[in-house]
């Protein structure tokens, strides 16, 4: 059975590219454009929660870190690894990701194939890649 990945990003192009690469690597992908849609899908599919969440920090009207904090305070979702993606390059954002317990912090733009490889490491081998950011 393939692993389920939820991609939460308001940028449709980012969602499509990430979903394409993850599908190609045999992952099932669930997409949400914001925190409310993510919460609705988590509630509707609570029996089949995602194995990993890829979460954008900057979304209109919502703070991805607030959404992440809510995930960590919910007993049903606190165990789900979260990869944080953001266009912010300042070190404070990476620090917040670490403090919240992110499995990985990636700075946009990132290479989708690199993301898929890191997802494989996280889920297939049960190992956690180190927190890092791209400086492109």
Automatic annotation (TrEMBL):
Superkingdom per UniProt: Bacteria
Ranges for domain Response regulatory: 4-123
Xref: SUPFAM superfamilies: CheY-like
InterPro entries listed in its UniProt record: Bact_response_regulator, CheY-like_superfamily, Sig_transdc_resp-reg_receiver
Residues that bear 4-aspartylphosphate: 56
Keywords assigned: Phosphoprotein
Keyword Phosphoprotein listed: yes
Single Gene Ontology BP annotation: phosphorelay signal transduction system
Protein name: Response regulatory domain-containing protein
Organism: Reticulibacter mediterranei
């Amino acid at each position: 059975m393939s692993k389920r990945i939820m991609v939460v990003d308001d940028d449709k192009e980012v969602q499509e590219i990430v979903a394409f690469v993850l599908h190609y690597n045999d992952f099932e992908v669930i997409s949400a454009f914001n925190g409310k849609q993510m919460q609705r899908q988590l509630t509707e599919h609570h029996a089949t929660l995602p194995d990993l969440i890829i979460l954008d920090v900057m979304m209109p009207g919502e703070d991805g870190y607030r959404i992440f904090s809510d995930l960590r305070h919910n007993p049903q979702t606190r165990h789900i690894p979260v990869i944080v993606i953001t266009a912010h390059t300042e070190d404070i954002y990476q620090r917040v990701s670490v403090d919240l317990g992110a499995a990985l912090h990636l700075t946009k733009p990132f290479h989708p194939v690199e993301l898929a490889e890191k997802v494989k490491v996280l889920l297939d081998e049960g190992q956690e890649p180190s927190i890092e950011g791209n400086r492109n």
